[in-house]
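Lecture 7 notes: from sequence to structure.
We start with the chain below.
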Amino acid sequence: MASPLSVILTQNKLTGENFNDWKRNLLIVLNFEKHSFVLTQPRPPTPAIDAPDRDFVALERWENSNLSAMCYIRASMSNAKTDAIKGLMNCRQKVGTPIKEHMMKVMAYLSEAQTNGAEIDSATQLVMVFQTLSKDFDLFQASYNITRKEMSLTELMKELQAFENIFKGSGSKEKQFSYL
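Predicted structure tokens for the same chain:
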């Protein structure tokens, strides 16, 4: 970003929650750089070969300003999809954290990723969830891998909560699991 004002956009990236502030800052920079006209004026038509030079100059100016505006816009947006996927991939259930709390966190990451353009099918979502679970849910995961029952994330959360309630505060999970 060439302008000293472009620091405004670097320090105040669009995160989804600050759209109005981001737009105001973007307009300040585009006005200062004299590129804001591309937001309100359509692209000039491609001039005929025998058109006056001013038509070619006008088209070139619009295209250069449009390119600059697009670069300012893209550079000032946070990489929300990547951040959400990274958060999900680094998410691990901490010992003692209730499964509902953990699942809500995981589901928020998945929702944010999808809102920002990630396409994650339901089977992949389940695999991603299982990778975040603590070892306390290894038996549940083994049982799931045998049955391969299709379920939504909400259904999975309910199943995990039931599993958690069965084994909560008990001694050996293996002993109790054999009674099921």
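Points to note: Residues 80-177 form one domain. Residues 172-180 have pLDDT under 50 and may be disordered.
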